[in-house]
# Entry
Amino acid sequence: MKIYDTTSQSRITFLDRPADSPRADLFKCNLHWQDENTLLIGWADQIKVARVRTRPRKSSASNLPPLLVEITAVFQLDCMVSGIVPHPMPSSAPASASALALPTKPNGSVRSTTSPALTAFLIVAYTPPDTTLLSGATGEAVEDRAAQARKVAERPELRIISRSGEELAADALGISGYERWGCNDYVLVEIESSPAKSGGEGERYYAVMSPLDIVVVKPRDWRDHVAWLVERKQYEEALEVIERMGNEPGASGGKGAEKDKVKDELDAVQIGQRYIEHLVGEG
# Structure
């Protein structure tokens, strides 16, 4: 992989595949610019974070490009990466305000001059039928051709991985015909809706594409957490979340039928009644 600076019209770095990497034709290189200086690289079973910065003056020379690239992080995974984008992490929200509560502790990564928000990695994780590829093996054909023919791909997953390499969440994707698709058949894109269309701030969501499907993925919020608590009969905790979050601007969100649905799901009186019935039933 090469990074080229259009201003100086020069190539500033060349990043080769690691030794004993899985086959490049089966596992493509996925690139995503998090900002103008930070490049996320998902290649086979590795994630790398590349940081572009100005070359120090003391080491600058006429034959060297004005920019250089540092690899600030490398993560080894137990899967192949079919797509990678940054996923914002809440900086001050309480842990119980989301069904998917993410750690907020800074990870000590290199500071950006543009002060990017703390993020995790959102990836489409693909596990190949031949798991020897994960160890860098050549994946030679087995002697039993019938056994080899029976191997099918596993269902892809959407995973959130922290900047320290910890897996925070994993959800299987409902993809049609996933048994037949390879790592290169999936695409992950980040989408931000127009503020005018969403009636306020732009809404961030993601799309996972396969040869037959487009799956839209949205981050969970405190409303999802309340529904999750009610489903598990944790009514007291649900009421506490509503009390804490319900009076915030935009908490009722939406309009028309969507707003009515949200109101029904988050109606503290209805949840309170169900809580009383639950307590009576428990004696």
